[in-house]
Amino acid sequence: MGYNFVWFDIGYTLLYIKREEPFRTLLAEFGYERSLEEVDRAFHSVAKLFMREYPGVLGRPFEHYLPWYMGFLCNYLDIDGDVFSICVRWKEIWRSFNPLWHPYPQALPTIKKMISMGLGVGIISNWDLSARSVLADAGLLDFINPCIISSEVGFSKPSKEIFNIALEKAGGDAAKSLYIGDNYYDDALGAASVGMDSLIINRFGKFGVEELQGQKLINNVAEVLPFIEKGYK
Q: How many CB atoms lie within 10 A of CB 146?
């Protein structure tokens, strides 16, 4: 399959939050020593759990799901102490992050390479009205067109409507488009509903997505290019 357009999700596809080390430090304040890898895998595992079992929740404001999320996170890390106090302290730390989102090192070089290959590059994302400013702050917005954001168009992934809006805006063909995201249930299923291929980013191989069968997985956004060059075989 020859592609002429690549669509990206935003969070944990192009951008990420530097949360693991601050959370590890927080746990140490409460007397819990956990390795950076343990914390990283815990965040990953809980995110995948929410994607699978509680669709749409991670798209809500952080405060709405934090206690729920923190319970799962602490359970994974075998923390049985004052989870409420940990949650309160984490909220304080979270609000101090500025900026909150950072681009993956591979994101901009990969996008620039795609553009140099003659590919269109766009965004289809479930995000609030901050999406464009977040992308601009990360240095990515000027290289992406169009940006289709759920809060702007009134539809969210995995609905086929948001994908069709994107294709219409770009004048694109779903059969020649490739979608890249980190949430199989929003991204791969939504893309498939309009006949679009997808790649799902999962930084730990099959960990956290063991239930998936037949879905192509990659470790990071830089691995998209080989798939395009060899025609998604």
A: 18
